[in-house]
Amino acid sequence: MTHLRVDGDELVAFDRRHIWHPYASAVGDAPLFPVVSAEGVRLRLADGRELVDGMASWWAAIHGYNHPALNAALRTQIDSMAHVMFGGLTHPPAVELCRRLVELTPDPLQRVFLADSGSVSVEVALKMALQYQRARGHAGRTRMLTVRGGYHGDTFAAMAVCDPDGGMHSLWSGALPEHLFAPVPPAGFTRPLSGADTEELAALLAKHRHEIAAVILEPIVQGTGGMRFHSPAYLRRVRELCDEHDVLMITDEIATGFGRTGELFACDHAGISPDIMCLGKALTGGYMTMAATLCTDEVAETISRAHGAFMHGPTFMANPLAAAVATASIDLLVSGPWRERVATLAEGLREGLEPARGLPQVADVRVLGGIGVIELHEPVDMRKVQPAFVERGVWIRPFGKLVYTMPPYVMGAEDLATVTAAMVDVVATVHPEPVA
């Protein structure tokens, strides 16, 4: 790992005075740790300490950091073209990336719209659904149906389909479009499906079908909304209901795409295809911001024949650098033993997190693919918990009642054991027991 001499105190001092961090107060003094380099599964702090990264930089750096194949892709591309507008032009990196995406995703998804970030890909998906319905003569279909407990991003339309009450965007209630919300999917990846599980969702579709443009949900795993897992059978039933009521199905695979749940895409567990799919995060291996919204020919051609164009166009759409590293990341993933690596992660997570199950602070412990979760009875105190992880040589970023990890796929058994041991120890010794 490259050793850089950096004054960490000066970095933090300037940061606290001038920089606003995500989901943070501009006048707070929450713990802040300056990173100067990263390699493999480790982050190096300005004071020389190294942390095993259990977060894969918000789930994106699936190959770890400073990977030679991804570095090479960027170096090669920058010598020919760093960026060019995508209006009226195309270029090899965009074509190659979209070729990979069409090949890897379910067969009906044949059209790719490239965007800047996961939230923007959701905005694009919602606009596609609305414009599609208008193109079919259904101008009254302006609402979305989703499930409680979901999270789809921080931009305005995306916030409107996040959980309206318990989610982080409840502050904006009254200012957002009002959509329809079915109950949280029943918990349990292997849970058998009963008729009651989708009864209310089906009733909402039947009652409001002439208002609904699409159903949007996170397949199999609800991420930031609570790290809950639901069954493939539930997802299959949602697909059936969408077909029955002639509404589009949008799957938000931003967190679950590219192998995180043990299948390449979470909808593969159910053997279904959505009409529109959102991808992001791991798309570029954590190197650059980029996202993709894929749709069927039916969606794309219906919009285009009626309106001539889909009305969206990010300035940095299909950025060649991002497209080149995304293609390299996908090739690196599918050419390697990703399925075995994720299965090994799952085994190590189950073994390593099991001791937390008996702690009085703990409500649940669950694992699916490369996702390990300790759910607590009470929210964590980040001022205490975050430094405690750093002291143990691990980077874990809890939120709410969740202490969780989504490590890079390349993490070895010893480092994974370090991560899980730290999670159990911090929960046991730092997080308080629930008050009787």
UniProtKB/TrEMBL annotation:
What EC number(s) does its UniProt record assign?
A: 2.6.1.62
Keyword Transferase assigned to the entry: answer is yes
Q: In which pathway does it act?
A: Cofactor biosynthesis; biotin biosynthesis; 7,8-diaminononanoate from 8-amino-7-oxononanoate (SAM route): step 1/1
Q: Sorted alphabetically, which SUPFAM superfamilies does this protein's record hold?
A: PLP-dependent transferases
Q: What class of enzyme is it?
A: transferase
Q: Where does pyridoxal 5'-phosphate bind?
A: 118-119, 252, 314-315
The residues that hold substrate are 58, 151, 281, 313, 397
**What cofactor requirement does the entry state?**
pyridoxal 5'-phosphate
Residues bearing N6-(pyridoxal phosphate)lysine?
281
Give the positions of the site Participates in the substrate recognition with KAPA and in a stacking interaction with the adenine ring of SAM. Answer: 23
Highest taxon above the source species: Bacteria
Q: Which reaction does it catalyse?
A: (8S)-8-amino-7-oxononanoate + S-adenosyl-L-methionine = S-adenosyl-4-methylsulfanyl-2-oxobutanoate + (7R,8S)-7,8-diammoniononanoate
| UniProt keyword terms in alphabetical order | Aminotransferase, Biotin biosynthesis, Cytoplasm, Pyridoxal phosphate, S-adenosyl-L-methionine, Transferase
Record localization: Cytoplasm
Q: NCBIfam families in the record, alphabetically?
A: bioA, PRK05964.1, PRK07986.1
Q: What does this protein do?
A: Catalyzes the transfer of the alpha-amino group from S-adenosyl-L-methionine (SAM) to 7-keto-8-aminopelargonic acid (KAPA) to form 7,8-diaminopelargonic acid (DAPA). It is the only aminotransferase known to utilize SAM as an amino donor.
Question: Which PANTHER family is this protein grouped with?
Answer: ADENOSYLMETHIONINE-8-AMINO-7-OXONONANOATE AMINOTRANSFERASE
What does the record note on quaternary structure?
A: Homodimer.
* Family in the record: Belongs to the class-III pyridoxal-phosphate-dependent aminotransferase family. BioA subfamily.
Q: What is this protein called?
A: Adenosylmethionine-8-amino-7-oxononanoate aminotransferase
Q: What is the lineage of its organism?
A: Bacteria, Bacillati, Actinomycetota, Actinomycetes, Kitasatosporales
